[in-house]
Design brief:
Blueprint (H helix, E strand, L loop, with lengths): L1 E6 L8 E2 L11 H13 L9 E9 L8 E7 L13 E6 L13 H9 L4 E7 L6 E8 L9
Parallel strand pairs: 3-6
Antiparallel strand pairs: 1-2, 1-5, 3-4, 6-7
Length: about 150
């Protein structure tokens, strides 16, 4: 199972996505992940329990304000049960049954890799419609121990 969230507001509204958000000034990506998971789901995680699995730059040539650099983490340790918030409706989803059609078009290119224990890095470029993919330039490393399958 993997915890994803249906976005109720903000960037990606209406899509199923990972839990996360913007890095605040003086925050590391891991600290931001801990804060965002707590804010969006009420679940507590610790930075030392995060497994870094990649970073991807999402490029939107037709809408540069949408561009962002995402740092990806997994964890197997948390405290509490996910609760719906104003921004997210969390959902436990079986890895073998992820509803790709409800996610951003990029997810199918990298999420299976990280759930299989690989680390990804690179860029994904969107077409002018800001929905479909123009190019995927990812490199991945040999699988790490402890895949999520």
């Amino acid at each position: 199972m993997v915890l994803l969230g249906f976005k109720k507001s903000g960037f990606g509204k209406g899509k199923l996505d990972g839990i996360g958000g913007k890095i605040e000034p003086k925050e590391t990506p891991a600290q931001a992940a801990v804060r965002e998971v707590a804010e969006e789901t009420g679940v507590e995680i610790r930075t030392q329990d995060l497994i870094p699995v990649g970073d991807i730059r999402f490029l939107f040539p037709a809408s540069r304000e949408m561009e962002h650099h995402v740092f990806l983490f997994l964890t197997r340790r948390w405290k509490g049960e996910p609760k719906e918030t104003e921004e997210i409706r969390p959902a436990w989803v079986p890895v073998a049954a992820i509803p790709w059609e409800k996610m951003w078009a990029d997810a199918v290119h990298w999420l299976p890799l990280v759930l299989d224990g690989q680390r990804v890095s690179g860029e994904i470029t969107f077409n002018p419609d800001n929905e479909s993919i123009a190019a995927v330039d990812l490199e991945w490393v040999e699988p790490k121990s402890g895949a999520m399958s």
